[in-house]
């Protein structure tokens, strides 16, 4: 078997207030070697869902289930950074109890570390002036419990933490990161989580000062005129600058490959009081701080927040439990045979929760979430894409979980008894042509119009065609009056293409629809060309065609690939016969009276030979 890929799991937890989030750790799977026939706990079945489709192809539904086993978890480093500012005093015991429960539930291979922060009494104003609030406390940032396997030492160190003063969140994060990096040693096969727990808005900055934005150089402010004696030292705090430092430390932690969880217990009543941020908290400060904390978390789900301390501690325990108590995820891959097209695929766990599924070509895969133990079922639908004339394999596949590898039983389906009920005999295209529904037309009057009908039946294989056009070279002695294209029902379909005329050459170039000529399959189009004999055509020009049996005309169908062409028959049309005649005049007149007896005069004998001289035996 292959060895599972090594991975470092260290967790650093920072507690500075309430941060709410849900971890979504990256799943890392190591391949295992499949033992032939190792199908224990694996199922794969398929059955016919619908066999009534018009194309005689059945839709099948299948279920493939695989077990996800509890396995050895990777060791974890959990670094907790705890907000020990004065605002957390009343609820600090609840948070400490929640984290103690989490830590005591860790395995012997896991390590823990605790850092806490509070205080800060130096204020700096925009003009650079510094003032000290003698009533406040010096900044105190420290490691309460060094990185250790001893969980009881962590609990003892947490019990010694005292709360007071301001909120130097960035400094707490920086100390925790620096000390962890100095002491963690070999992190192979270990993952690190940082957990920041806070209930307040960061104020004391990395330089040790609380930065104020008011320009009157006053530490104390009175934000509510209705309560002129209620003082706030936080109202004009540069909360955005302090939050930016926290975000930068969050990002430094994640950039080093560690996971970052931010938990923020939001005491809206306290933070909106006249002694704090008053009217700015709900509209400005609160939304901004929560946005920054969520952005600093490894994922949006790694940020938790609540206004209820009970709900907050519940979330806090759950998110750490979810992230740290994780078994190796399992990935299953199901390969669908080429005779079937995948229609859909989903997966669910034992509780009916959706499990992410991916479809790549003919492969369906699903991966369990970290920490899940139980069964996962892949539900899939496929459709036959060819005739299934015998029992046929539909799907097979494998499941890997760490070094565990198993095979799905092969799922087969009986033959499709109706597989050939929809078979279609290939029909080739044809083209014919007539004149006034005849093979030959003798015109009665030279001026009469007459219709040529070019009929083409497209057959049933037009879906593969790359071209489709009708072409008719009309004789130059004929005048084209109009061109119309209709289908087998007499419907005008000229708009399905483009008709062009050039030097008596008529072309109907058909359009593709949905990038295909499939819509022509099974249809018949008739191109009707209405013509007359040109008035300018002479008897001499027409005579040869009369001798040869009429004016012929032929049309072509260009289809399939370039060069594929069908020629129609050649119907003919004969102009009406013109009989010979002879006339005579004298000097252009029927009668002439001579003036002088010896006067000369001309007799003119005129004859028109008509258009049937080819059969004469004398002239």
How does the overall form come out from the CA principal axes? elongated
Strand content: 25-35%
Label the CATH architecture of the largest domain. Answer: 3-Layer(aba) Sandwich
Count of DSSP-assigned helices: 8
Total count of strands: 32
Question: Could you name the CATH topology of the largest domain?
Answer: Rossmann fold
CATH class of the largest domain: Alpha Beta
Domains (count): 4
**CATH homologous superfamily of the largest domain, by name?**
von Willebrand factor, type A domain
Strand order of the largest sheet: 7-4-3-8-10-11
Explain this structure to me?
The structure is a single chain. The chain has helices at about 90-105, 150-160, 170-185, 240-255, 270, 280-295, 310-325, 540-545; strands at about 45-50, 60-70, 75-85, 110-120, 120-125, 130, 140-150, 190-200, 210, 260-265, 305, 330-335, 340-350, 355-360, 365, 375-385, 390-400, 405-415, 430-435, 440, 450-455, 465-475, 480-485, 495-500, 505-510, 525-535, 550, 555-560, 565, 570-575, 580-585, 605-610. Helix 1 packs antiparallel against helix 2, helix 1 (about 90-105) packs parallel to helix 7 and helix 3 (about 170-185) packs parallel to helix 4 (about 240-255). Helix content is about 15%, strand content about 35%. A six-stranded mixed β-sheet has the order 7-4-3-8-10-11, sandwiched between helices. The chain has four domains: about 45-70 and about 325-415, Immunoglobulin-like, CATH 2.60.40.740; about 75-120 and about 140-200 and about 240-325, 3-Layer(aba) Sandwich (Rossmann fold); about 430-575, Immunoglobulin-like (Sandwich); about 580-615, no CATH class. This is Fimbrial isopeptide formation D2 domain-containing protein.
